[in-house]
Amino acid sequence: MIKVIKLPDLGEGIEDVDISEVQVSAGDTIAVDDILIILESEKATMEIPSEYAGTVKAVHVTAGDTLKPGSPIIDLDVEGLSEAEAEPEPSVDTTPTELPARSAPPTPTHTVLPPSTSAHASPGVRRLARELDIDLSLVPRTGPKGRLTKDDLLNYIKDRLSKGGQPTQPEIDFSAWGPVEEIPLNKIRRLTGERMQAAWQTVPHVTQFDRADITELEALRQSMKTTWAESGVRITLLPFLMKAVALLLKDYPDVNSSLTSTGKALILKKYIHLGIAVDTPEGLMVPVIRDVDQKDVVQLSRELMDVSERARSKKLKPDEFQGATFTISSLGGIGGTWFSPIVNPPQVAILGVSRASVQPVWDSKKAAFIPRTILP
Question: pTM for this structure?
Answer without folding.
Answer: 0.62
